[in-house]
Amino acid sequence: MAVKKYFEDVSDDEQLPSFQQTITRTHIVKYAGAGGDFNPIHTDEEFAKAAGLPSVFAMGLMHGGMLTRVVNDWAGDGNVRRYRIRFSGMVWPHDVLTFTGKVIKKYRGNGENLVDCQLTVVNQKGEQNIDGSATVALPSRK
Amino acid sequence: MIDKSLANTKLDSFEFPVERGKIKEFANAICDPNPVFKDQDYARNQGFADVIMPVTFPITFVFQQDSDNAVLESALKLGMDPARSVHGEVEFIYERPVFAGETLRGEIWIGNIYEKAGKRGGTMTFVEHETRFFDGAGKLAVTLRNIFIEKG
Question: What ipTM was estimated for this complex?
């Protein structure tokens, strides 16, 4: 199995590779179809406007799903043990989201080498849309 | 009023077949180009049984439910007021990776129901809604925990 990251090579405060994504209505519709969230507030513009919103907005698990790439690409496939996201604020079509992560803590637990990471999604205005965290288990060089 | 007597009770169980095509579709929808979710040969060369389930993929269990909005509806069944309630948090806990071709058994549980004082006064009630996925050997593989918060 190709190792992406060894436990010994993780530095305190290490930044995980980040990426950006501009959100379109197509992303939202595609995620509704793949993920199974058919609440019309996310996909039906007329419904969203009737509810007093400027337009449809993304389901949190859409960008919450995109965010997993930050930790999975860094830690290696199959190594995520826990992934938690808290939603704070809505994501609208045309928002430019930045997905980032950083190392918080390295420790031994459950017989594994564990690393806790903080993960965030921030929009083009600097507003945080997701406050997330993950625990990954990494292989050791020993 | 939230019915606290439903804490730690099982609401439903269902079969959850983990399908390769569904995983690929989901990975594309979250814009993740990682071949471990799409290419069986690549995944096998990495030492896995088949393509892996993406971390948040368990939420697609809703396709196995009769309703399009099963999670929210079961929160409402507890007596939560939708006007004062938010979907605060989602957590995925993995005992091991799950592969295409497996059939999991899902169990929907109401977990703990607890209260905390709100920052602006009043009481906030937290309801844990869990879907627990067991593998063919009957071992827990993944827990999906949603937390709904009703503001006071």
Answer: 0.96
